[in-house]
Amino acid sequence: MGGTSPCASCKLLRRRCAKDCIFAPYFPSDDPHKFAIVHKVFGASNVSKMLQELPVQQRADAVSSLVYEANARVRDPVYGCVGAISFLQNQVSELQMQLAVAQTEILCIQMQQQVQDPMVQQLPNPTSTRGSGTVGQLSEGNIGYDDKQYLVHNHHQFINSSSVNYDQYSLKRETIFGDMVS
């Protein structure tokens, strides 16, 4: 930046901002917190070395990643953004399990309605092996009659075995996403 105002890094480090300052394009003076957190986690010298080793066109993305990781490390010093990713993957798995249970219950209700209503057309009985249908096939509508019967008779066992222990993840939710409700 040179003559007008020093960049956030030079301001924090209390040094004169040179025209060729490697930090100036990525850490403007109007956002000092951005460099402060990166400096706290990685150190100015390490960030400078990383940026010098990268081509100029990749430096902005690298700074963005460093800022993200530094923020994650401040929130969760042990796992950083890996903890956030792990939390989100576990949440996706839990939601997929809930979706599978809901789809099984819907199928069970539909089959009970079909048994109660004699006017409904019978399901086709293609040759299939018991339990060969997958949960993904439920939404596609291409599982066989035997598979549906298997799911109906065994859905209670499936529901009981899919209970999830939330105690393990509740602390993570507060540490990684401090303002989220668990």
Short description:
With 182 residues, this protein is an all-alpha fold. It has two domains: 8-75, no CATH class; 81-175.
Q: Mind explaining what this structure looks like?
A:
This protein has 182 residues and is mostly helical. It folds into two domains: 8-75, no CATH class; 81-175. The chain is built from eight helices and no strands. The chain has helices spanning 8-13, 32-42, 44-53, 56-75, 81-116, 135-140, 145-161, 167-176. Helix 2 (32-42) packs across helix 3, helix 2 (32-42) packs across helix 4 and helix 5 packs across helix 7.
Using only CA atoms, what is the Rg?
28 Å
Number of separate helices: 8
Question: Biggest sheet: strands, sense, closure?
Answer: none
Instruction: Give the SSE string.
Output: HHHHHHHH
Average pLDDT over all residues: 76
Distance between the termini: 45 Å
Q: What is the beta-strand fraction?
A: under 5%
Helix fraction, binned, reads: 55-70%
SSE class = mainly alpha
Key words describing this protein structure:
182 residues, mainly alpha, 8 helices, 64% helix, rod-shaped, disordered C terminus, LOB, LOB domain-containing protein
What order do the helices and strands come in, and which of them pair?
Blueprint: H1 8-13, H2 32-42, H3 44-53, H4 56-75, H5 81-116, H6 135-140, H7 145-161, H8 167-176
Helix pairs in contact: 2-3, 2-4, 5-7
